[in-house]
Specification:
Fe-transptr_FeoA-like, 6 strands, Transcriptional_repressor_C, transition metal ion binding, Ferrous iron transport protein A
Length: 81
C-alpha cells in the first residue's frame, strides 16, 4: 500500500515560489464567484510569485496570468500541494 502526503491549506499560506492546485473555496458567495471568474478555478495550478512587505497584497500566477489579491481573498481559496 502506498501513501501520498498531500498538504491542504489556502493560497495565502503558500511560500513565495511554490505552487499548488486549487480545490475549492471557503464559502459560496459573490466573492467566491468573482475569484472563479478571475481564473482561480478548481483544478488550476497557482503559484505565489510575490508577497508585499507587509504580507498584503499577494501576486499569483494562474493560467498564465499574473493577478494580485488581498490576503483575505487568497485565504478563501483552498488548495492542495
Amino acid at each position: 500500500m502506498s501513501h501520498t502526503t498531500e498538504h491542504t491549506g489556502t493560497l495565502a499560506e503558500l511560500a513565495v515560489g511554490t505552487s499548488a492546485t486549487i480545490v475549492g473555496y471557503d464559502g459560496d458567495d459573490v466573492v467566491s464567484r468573482r475569484l472563479f471568474d478571475l481564473g482561480f478555478a478548481p483544478g488550476q495550478i497557482c503559484e505565489l510569485e510575490r508577497r508585499a512587505p507587509l504580507m498584503d497584497p499577494l501576486m499569483f500566477k494562474v493560467g498564465g496570468t499574473e493577478i494580485v489579491l488581498r490576503r483575505s481573498e487568497a485565504s478563501r481559496i483552498l488548495v492542495k500541494s
